[in-house]
Design the sequence.
């Protein structure tokens, strides 16, 4: 068995830890994906980054990491003038030291709920438009510029669309400028600050029947951006799989495969790449029994990835967490039976689950990327 540099570094990091150091390499998710020209990764952040065994799991399985919250405005911007990069730096430094790539998430989460509170009461002054543009461009330039040497793909704008109405959201930041202009400024500024990075619009439209309005709105947004010359390179498909309100009686949701393929065909016809950026499976509507639940999650994941990987434009696949222990979904709309959710490829003790095998099998079956 040949051991590459990353395996060696990761192996050394894991030696002192409870994971089998030599389990990494070609038989890891990252290794199986890499054999097909696909980059596999996951998110890390919050307390889980301080769990050495979890860091070792990520170093072993991933080629790529994305900070879960640490690069967002809520983490980097205590106020309008100051930046705090300590938490993001720690993750990026660790990734670099372990030979992992980093995705940047996100230069603008265009949603009032997720912007820092201070913006809601911020005084934009006598020329609110000028000040809003300055604040936005300064933010994007500073964050993208800081991480550009190590981040080669940014979610420039996240979730700009109200998925129920299909209209662009407005936030305290966008009100003086207009949502469309906010998006364009963010992308143009990112291109200047990180000219070699892949610039991504990231959103949670998906393949269920009840997501047609969202899909149509994302297409319209991307078409407008292309028509205006806004520099977008790819669509980030978040891939939080499962039913819309997590508790539908229809299992993981009724799928509209034709509608989803039409959507992906239209996106790729614009010359855009696709990324699976935040995959997990919200298992609320599934039965509590673990074997059955895990099997359904795995089957759903496999079908989904097979479809996504049938597009050669899909070259990056990321989970939103590797282990059920740390999934954000466990803090979000509890299951009716109160059981812990199992949305990730490894269980709470970091043992591989059927979902892990489904991801591996989908990579193994995927046609090689160019
Ligand atoms: C989530 C994090 O996982 C949580 O810890 C945080 O409290 C809220 O944000 N779509 C996104 C991610 O683009 O940034 C979100 O991450 C999950 C949904």
Sequence:
């Amino acid at each position: 068995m040949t051991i590459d540099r990353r395996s060696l570094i990761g192996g050394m990091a894991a030696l002192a830890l409870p994971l089998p150091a030599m389990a990494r390499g070609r038989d890891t998710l990252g290794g199986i994906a890499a054999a097909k020209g696909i980059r596999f990764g996951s998110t890390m952040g919050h307390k889980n980054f301080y769990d050495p065994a979890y860091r070792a799991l990520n170093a072993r399985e991933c080629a790529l990491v994305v900070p879960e919250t640490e690069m967002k405005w809520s983490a980097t911007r205590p106020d309008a003038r100051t930046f705090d990069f300590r938490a993001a730096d720690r993750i990026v430094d660790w990734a670099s030291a372990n030979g992992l790539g980093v995705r940047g998430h996100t230069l603008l989460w265009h949603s009032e709920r997720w912007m820092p509170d201070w913006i809601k009461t911020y005084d934009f002054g006598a020329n609110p438009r000028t000040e809003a543009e300055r604040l936005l461009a300064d933010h994007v330039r500073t964050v993208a510029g800081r991480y550009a040497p190590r981040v080669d793909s940014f979610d420039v704008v996240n979730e700009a669309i109200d998925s129920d109405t299909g209209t662009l959201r407005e936030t305290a930041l966008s009100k003086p400028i207009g949502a469309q202009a906010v998006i364009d400024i963010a992308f143009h500024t990112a291109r200047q600050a990180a000219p070699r990075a892949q610039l991504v619009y990231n959103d949670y439209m998906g393949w269920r029947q009840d997501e047609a309005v969202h899909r149509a709105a994302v297409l319209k947004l991307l078409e407008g951006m292309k028509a205006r010359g806004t520099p977008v390179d790819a669509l980030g498909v978040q891939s939080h799989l499962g039913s819309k309100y997590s508790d539908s009686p229809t299992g993981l949701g009724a799928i509209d495969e034709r509608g989803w393929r039409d959507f992906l065909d239209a996106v790729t016809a614009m010359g855009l790449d696709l990324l699976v950026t935040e995959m997990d499976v919200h298992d609320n509507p599934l039965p509590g029994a673990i074997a059955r639940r895990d099997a359904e999650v795995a089957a759903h994941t496999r079908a989904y990835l097979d479809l996504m990987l049938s597009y050669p434009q899909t070259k990056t696949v990321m989970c939103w967490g590797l282990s059920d222990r740390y999934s954000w979904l466990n803090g979000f709309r509890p299951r009716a039976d109160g059981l812990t959710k199992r949305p990730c490829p490894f269980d709470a003790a970091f043992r591989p689950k059927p979902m892990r095998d489904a991801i591996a099998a989908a990579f193994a079956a995927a046609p090689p990327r160019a």
